[in-house]
Design a protein that fits this description.
This protein is an alpha/beta fold. The chain has 9 helices and 16 strands. A hairpin with a 2-residue loop joins strand 11 (295-296) and strand 12. Helix 1 (25-42) crosses helix 5 and helix 4 (130-146) packs across helix 5. Residues 1-17 form the signal peptide.
């Protein structure tokens, strides 16, 4: 067993109208987008409390285990892109059959997430040409209507980049994505369209974050900023998985992104703050760190060196990279898959890192560190957002402590921003859980 383990955490029915697709397509799209923008401007923004249902955990965490009353929207993960633009591969289709009806029975909006880290390989080619975009729009409309979904969530990781390593990609991805979405919005004027995004705006043709993404606000009801995996086993040092605010970092190399800087980046690029939902991690990453590097005068060092040749295993839900007959598992690109090292919050409790109330188990020699600069500002920029949260992934509610359970996140943001609490009782701190915990 390691002498020291360091874990980085975080802060924790549509009416379908199928238009004609002829020479008047672009003018009809423009009219529809303009009408949609007027509707978005006039319609009050309702709070969003969302999560993603990870279908591959359904054997251990079924639809019956979901605390449906905690959410306004649950998104099924995932529908994977394929070389055939007319087809997406829905993971665990037998589970998906019951997903929509179960969500609707609980008065929750049911959406599906298209893409994901392993399912975004063919996004670029699907939107590369006008012909492909039109065909992909039909695929999306059929996906929604055939399954009685309320909306579609696009998790393209990432436009203009190779993502997992073998994604098709083009400098024109962001521009083509917008054209596709405008055509899709014309076909689905009343459906909820959203996107899970990077902490930076979509990549422009020159390879840098776009400086103007305002047109995307006309087609998306909201975006969900994935403020997690900011630091991990791939980084040069340890660091917080989902930092709230990186303005307190001691040098520029540590300012790689946070919730606050992400919201500022998107709003500066023209995306309305009230169409932004903060994505919150329900897990952390494990690192192999020596006691000498982990602590500095008994204070946890958030940016320490670690053993990059070994990632300590995480909890029972951690990725197990074992292929057939004990061979090394390969990812979708055919590359060897490394140990994930992920710890869900319930796993941290079961393994003694956290107490049931979310605090560190100091009696067992655990030290921890909060994002201390997260409350230095009298009013966080997050207060201008949709003031709700999206949790990735949906975790076991009977195992999660109240401070880190997904049901507490939205109201913690509300209380930080001076809004009245609505239906849930939570603490008044936006610092949901420690950024780092370490076993001496």
């Amino acid at each position: 067993m390691l002498s020291s383990a360091l874990i980085s955490l975080g802060v924790a029915g549509s009416a379908l109208a199928w238009p004609g697709f002829g020479s008047s397509r672009h003018s009809s799209i423009a009219r529809a987008v303009h009408a949609r923008q007027e509707l978005v401007t006039a319609k009050p923004k309702e709070p969003v409390a969302a999560t993603w249902f990870a279908s591959w955990h359904a054997d251990e965490f079924s639809l019956a285990n979901v605390s449906w009353n905690k959410y306004t929207t649950v998104s099924y993960s995932f529908a994977l892109t394929t070389p055939n633009i007319s087809f997406v591969n829905i993971s665990d289709p037998e589970v998906f059959k019951d997903f929509v009806s179960t969500a609707h029975a609980n008065n929750v909006s049911a959406t599906i997430s298209i893409g994901g880290w392993t399912g975004s390989i063919y996004f670029s080619s699907a939107v590369a040409t006008a012909e492909n975009r039109t065909e992909f729009v039909k695929t999306m409309v059929n996906l929604l209507s055939d399954n009685k979904l309320d909306g579609l969530s696009f998790d393209w990781e990432y436009p203009g980049a190779a993502g997992i390593g073998c994604n098709t990609n083009s400098p024109n991805d962001t521009a083509n994505f917008l054209l596709f979405l405008q055509e899709l919005r014309t076909a689905l004027p009343n459906a909820t369209l959203s996107a899970a995004t990077s902490i930076n705006p979509f990549i422009s043709a020159d390879g840098t974050p776009s400086t103007n993404v305002s047109d995307f606000a006309s087609v998306f009801d909201y975006i969900q900023i994935m403020n997690y995996d900011i630091w991990g086993p791939w980084s040069d040092t340890t660091g917080p998985n989902a930092p709230l605010n990186d303005t307190c970092a001691t040098n520029a190399t540590q300012k790689v992104g946070s919730a606050v800087s992400a919201v500022e980046a998107w709003t500066k690029a023209g995306f309305p703050a009230d169409q932004i939902v903060l994505g919150v991690a329900g897990y952390g990453h494990g690192f192999s760190v020596t006691p000498a590097n982990a602590l500095n005068d008994s204070i946890l060092n958030p940016y320490s060196t670690f053993n990059k040749s070994f990632t300590p295993p995480g909890d029972a839900w951690d990725d197990m990279p074992v292929g057939p007959n004990g061979t090394v598992a390969l990812d979708v690109c055919g590359n060897p898959q490394a140990q994930g090292g992920n710890w869900d919050f319930w796993g941290l409790i079961e393994n003694g890192f956290l107490n049931e109330n979310g605090t560190a188990n100091t009696a067992e020699g655990i030290v921890y560190k909060f994002d201390e600069c997260s409350q230095t500002r009298p009013r966080s920029p997050l207060c201008t957002t949709r003031h709700r949260a999206s949790l990735w992934p949906l975790t076991m509610p009977n195992r999660s402590p109240p401070r880190v359970n997904s049901s507490t996140l939205p109201d913690s943001v509300d209380s930080q921003c001076g809004r009245p609490e609505e239906t849930l009782t939570t603490s008044c701190s936006i610092r949901f859980v420690p950024l780092l915990v370490s076993q001496k």
